[in-house]
Amino acid sequence: MTVKLRRDLRAAWPRFVLMVIAIAVSLTVFGGVLNAWSAIGRETSGAYMSTEPASATIVLDRDLDPQRMAAIAAQVRERPGVLEATARAQFDGEIEVNGSKLDVALQVFVAAPDDPMRMVKFDVGQAGSWPPPPGEILIGQDSLGLLGVAVGDTMTVTTPSGDPVRLRVAGTVYDPSLAPSPQEQRGHAYLSTASLSTPGLNQLKIQVADPGTTEPSRDRDAAVAVAGAVSTWLQREHGLAISEIQVPEPYAHPHQWQADVLLLSLLAGGAAALLLSTVLVANMLNNLFTQQIPQIGIMKAIGAGAGRIARLYAAMTLSVAAAATLLAFGPAVFLGQDRLKGLLEMLGVQPVSLAAPWWSYAIMLAVGLGLPPLMALVPLVKASRITVRAAIDHHGLAAKASAATGVLARLSRLRRLDRGLLMALRNTVRRPARFWLCVGLLAGAGSVFVAGMSLTSGTQAVEEEKQALRYWDVEVKLAGLTEADTVAGAVGRVPAAARVETWQRVQVGIAAQGRLPVTRTYPDQGHGSIALNTLIAGRPAPRLLEGRWLNPGETGAVVLNQSVRAKTVPGLGAGDDVLLFIEGKPTTWRLAGIVEEREGAGGGVYATAEGLAAATGQPQRVNQVRVITGSHDERTRDAVAASARTAFAGAGVTVESAASISRTEAASAGHLGPVLLVLLGIAVPLGVLGGIGLASTMSTNVLDRIREFGVMHAIGARPRAVRRVVVAEGVFLALTSCVLAILPTLGLTAVLGAGLGNLFNNAPLPYRISGLAVAVWLVLVILGAALATDAAATRASRITVREALAYLG
Fold first, then answer.
1. What's the Cα-to-Cα distance from 743 to each of 444, 686, 738, rounded to whole Å?
2. How many CA atoms lie within 13 A of 535 on its CB side?
3. Are 61 and 25 part of one and the same domain?
4. 584, 579, 625, 624: which is closest to 605 by C-alpha?
5. How far apart, in whole angstroms, are the C-alpha atoms of residue 614 and residue 608?
6. H-type alpha helices, 430-498
């Protein structure tokens, strides 16, 4: 039996090589993603938890001096459920380096010099220390390149009071709780209140524990409850107004969910590829076992038992699995570490180790060695149990002709039809089980390939929608509220400014009646935050999901987008009352409608300028400016941004930031890039696998009919005719799989687009079928069928009649 095993492996080595490659490709993808997924949770959790993050942040309506905030924090530590508390503040400031203002905003995190740093910590690099001396500032490591500064440089930062403060960069900070600066297009800095002329803190950060424990709770509901109780106590005992209670997902990086979704999507794609490859290998082994039925009959006739034959073919299958696993192991480890490194860079996390845990390697070995034999078990047992009589009677065709074969046989009576093409078509369907398995495999691979590429088109369509909405060229954020006429006058002095739009944007908390405002805002004050935007005249309304849009000049009514409603007041609908906390003061509004918006498209809440003025008791003013130019080129945008700063300064208006819209597009691309990479990572391996499956299946079908080819030669068929018939059979098979894949592709694209879109944007992705993907798959399948079948057909066309009739395979 060992001799036969070696001879079989040597005789059919091209087929076994295809089996090994098919399994190795899919196992590499599956194992690599599994390794990355198994390690990323350890690395991100370890890095994020090392900062001792807050369970909740209670934002006050005004700044308090550091001494009073420290006393309040000490009292809060004694409250039930509170493990730790500290006072902080943060603001966005404009930066000036070497006399020129940068078009990148700087987010500054502020703490008291005597803060013990027991929570919300960060690692200070070797060049600095905490607290930095007065007049010095620490910069995030990944912000240096974005800001164009180095340790030792001097920069001027505009503080919330409008006063410019000259600071020396004393060192760097590694803070894994924040998204990377290049991705957010915003710098990060860390400052002591000792460097501010008017020091003040307005954030109370707390860590919450589950009852009876001393470890931070991972239950967001528990954190919300304790933070609400503390906020009520602050209102009652200290007379403080609460602007917002920020409770993000407990101890999860702001981009952690994105990495998890990407990896789980890739893991699902890798698992699908692995399953398809093992089905393919099982099909190829079944074909091999079927071809060797005469040999099995001979072995049984001379005394071999079913168990011994089963062990022979089990050893053959295990040899294929072992070779594929050995070939895939190294690339899978490399791919896993490479993907892990890339994803950790996306999260801004420096890995302690890129090695996967031992159990992921064990799973990869178990799947690689165990799944192919398991899938081949049924045909293996069936072949080993065949009787001598059945083996002798085996002639390689189905015992009963299928209905399709009969129809094609009747069509062959028509004189005008090409006999060679009819014969090829009949050969594709004469073994229905093999036909449907082969076509189903190709259709499945094609469906996933086209659906994956179509999701890429849908994701790109979302970005195109966002870009279409960004009709302006320069965005200016003012440090305070300003009269609209003053803004228009200042922009009127800017060359190349064709048109200007102004509105007011204010951070708000949102809650149902009788509740405090709780959001999912992260420490960067960007992810999960909610803002109210006043309407811009002439701008079209987003798509309505429920209720109505706002009327011009209407007061007392707001519109929410679907994401804000789902995350804050899921039980409310059009016509209900909702509370908006503006600068800590609750205001009651009627919910007019719900609109659909993509994530990041707006602030989430809309009201008229008249409505906001009536609610706050203040005149209509603006703090957001959009400038539209005539040329829309980047040079003009940069010039307009610089001129706008000068013009506003001349009008006595403090600018927080002024930048080209390209900054927003770069930040959006930083979020979109990993999604596109993952979708392509799912589609490409499945496309490769489908090509391998087609080539191997067609080669197997040709080998299965070697004796048939000998008969064709014996009755006078020319080699060209044999090749034409076989190549046509492969093309028919490929085209049939493409037709069969149409409906699954349409359905899979819709399901995946809805799932991915709702996960990222609370709205389905635009439905797109990628014409490029369809064309690529058609070319791949048809060309692969022709090339793979042509090689095997050439071999069959050259075999002699004697060799074909003596073939026992």
1. 11, 18, 10
2. 22
3. no
4. 579
5. 10
6. 432-469, 484-492
- CA pair distance 526, 412, nearest whole angstrom: 71
pLDDT tens-digit series, residues 493-528: 888 888 888 889 988 888 888 777 888 887 776 666
Residues 522 and 578 in one domain: yes
pLDDT at 673 over 60: no
* Amino acid (one-letter) located at 386: I
pLDDT of residue 611: 92
Q: State the Cα–Cα distance between residues 478 and 488, nearest whole angstrom.
A: 13
Sign of CA pseudo-dihedral 145, 116, 90, 524: positive
Write down the pTM of the prediction.
Answer: 0.70
Residue of higher predicted confidence among 628 and 431 = 628
Q: Calculate what percentage of the chain has a pLDDT beyond 70.
A: 78
> Comparing C-alpha atoms, which of 273, 257, 254, 288 is closest to residue 324?
273
d(CA 211, CA 222): 9
Collapsing DSSP to helix, strand or coil, 563 comes out as helix
Parallel, antiparallel, or unpaired for β 105-111 and 622-629?
unpaired
| 261/240 Cα distance (integer angstroms) | 40
State the alpha helices, DSSP H only, in 562-627. 562-568, 609-616
Task: Give residue for tokens 């706050």.
Answer: 616
Asked whether residue 649 falls in the same domain as residue 669, the answer is no
**Same-domain pairing of 139 and 221:** yes
3-state SS track over 15-29 = HHHHHHHHHHHHHHH
pLDDT, position 795 = 62
C-alpha count within 13 angstroms, C-beta hemisphere, residue 55: 25
Rounded Cα gap, residues 747 and 769, in angstroms: 11
Per the structure, the complete domain to which residue 798 belongs is given by 396-470+663-809
CB 158 within 8 A of CB 654: yes
Q: Which residues of 298-331 are buried (b: 16+ CB within 10 A; e: fewer)?
A: ebbeeebeeeebbebbbebbeebbebbbebbbeb
How many other C-beta atoms can be found within 10 angstroms of the C-beta atom of residue 424?
22
Among candidate residues 662, 695, 720, the one where a domain is terminated: 662
Q: How distant, in Å, are the alpha carbons of 171, 436, 570, 591 from that of 561?
A: 42, 47, 11, 11
* pLDDT confidence tier of residue 12, bands split at 50, 70 and 90: low
Amino acid at 526: G
Do 694 and 579 fall into the same domain?
no
What is the reported pLDDT for 66?
Answer: 92
Query: Is there a single domain that holds both residue 24 and residue 144?
Result: no
Residue after which a domain boundary falls, among 371, 394, 417: 394
Over the stretch 214-234, which tens digit does the pLDDT of each residue have?
888 889 889 999 999 999 999
How many structural domains are present in the chain?
4
Domain match, 491 and 628 both: yes
Task: Find the radius of gyration of the CA atoms of the chain.
Answer: 34
Neighbours of 765 (CB within 10 A): 26
Cα gap 374→378, rounded to integer Å:
8
Contact 26, 689 (CB under 8 A): yes
Mark whether 119 and 231 lie in a shared domain.
yes
Conformational region of residue 446, where left means phi above 0, alpha means psi within -120 to 50, and beta covers everything else: alpha
Say if residue 399's pLDDT is above 50: no
